[in-house]
Amino acid sequence: MPLLNKILANDHFDNSPRIWAGILFLLCIRTLINIFTRPILAILLTQSAPSKATLGTINGANQALAALCRALGPSIGGLVLAKGFAIGKPWICWVGLAGFSTCVFIGGLFLVDSKQTVEKRKEYERVENENESHGFVVGEEEEDDNIKIDDVRNENSRERRNDNRQSINRADHGNTS
Questions:
Q1: Rounded distance between C-alpha atoms, residue 157 and residue 73, angstroms
Q2: Cα→Cα distances 108→65, 96, 157, Å
Q3: Shortest CA distance to 51 belongs to which of 153, 143, 133, 169?
Q4: Where exactly are the structural domains of the chain?
Q5: 13 Cβ partners below 8 Å, 6+ apart?
Q6: CA 69, CA 37: separation in Å to the nearest integer?
Q7: CA atoms within 13 A on the CB side of 61
Q8: CA angle, corner 98, sides to 35 and 88, nearest 5?
Q9: Single pTM value for the model
Q10: If you average pLDDT over residues 8-23, what whole number do you get?
Q11: What percentage of the chain has pLDDT greater than the value 70?
Q12: DSSP string computed for 118-129
């Protein structure tokens, strides 16, 4: 709060209700934007995951990086704002934030969902649904064995084919005896 006291004590700061109404309005806008962006980012991450098995890792990395940014952001922003006040140009912080936001926006324009990712996701969901309908459960990867989802999928398909062959052989032998 020392910075707020310094700003309020400054003769150049207009401490009128109109200024505080503007600050309150901007804080409300920021809160509304935050309410919409968090679920949107969660949906984008979920949709961009190559498989459900990697979803936990992706969401964990997202939460860890978000916490890191929430920890470092105010420190860096406060440092830049303080340096701006020291040299008499407090607007430098806001120009820097606007530039960073513009770069992120432009980068976001180039994001596309590749055809290969969509096809892999559809194939994985098809196999997963097929396995669930046959009672097979695809387990999580074990670190010691380095089992991959594709290996489990192929093994389940082989087991299903062998079970079908055995039941056909049993039926054939049962009919001939």
A1: 49
A2: 18, 18, 40
A3: 153
A4: 118-140+148-176
A5: 7, 19
A6: 15
A7: 8
A8: 120
A9: 0.48
A10: 75
A11: 62
A12: HHHHHHHHHHHH
Q: What six digits make up the tokens of 65? A: 């990086």
**Hey, what's the torsion of the CAs at 170, 171, 175, 177, to 10 degrees?**
10
Query: Is there a contact between 97 and 27 (Cβ–Cβ < 8 Å)?
Result: no
Residue with tokens 């820097």: 96
Q: 136-156 pLDDT, tens per residue?
A: 555 444 444 444 555 555 666
3 state DSSP class of 13: coil
In terms of C-beta distances under 8 Å and separation of at least 24 residues, what long-range contacts does 1-9 make, across chains too? 3/78, 3/81, 3/82, 3/85, 6/85
The first and second tokens of residue 118, run together, are 């969509």
User: How far is the C-alpha of 160 from the C-alpha of 162, rounded, in Å?
Assistant: 5
Q: Which amino acid is located at 136 in the chain? A: F
Beta-carbon count within 10 A of 138 CB: 19
Cβ neighbours of residue 81 closer than 8 Å, sequence gap 6 or more: 3, 90, 93
Pair of tokens at residue 35: 């309410």
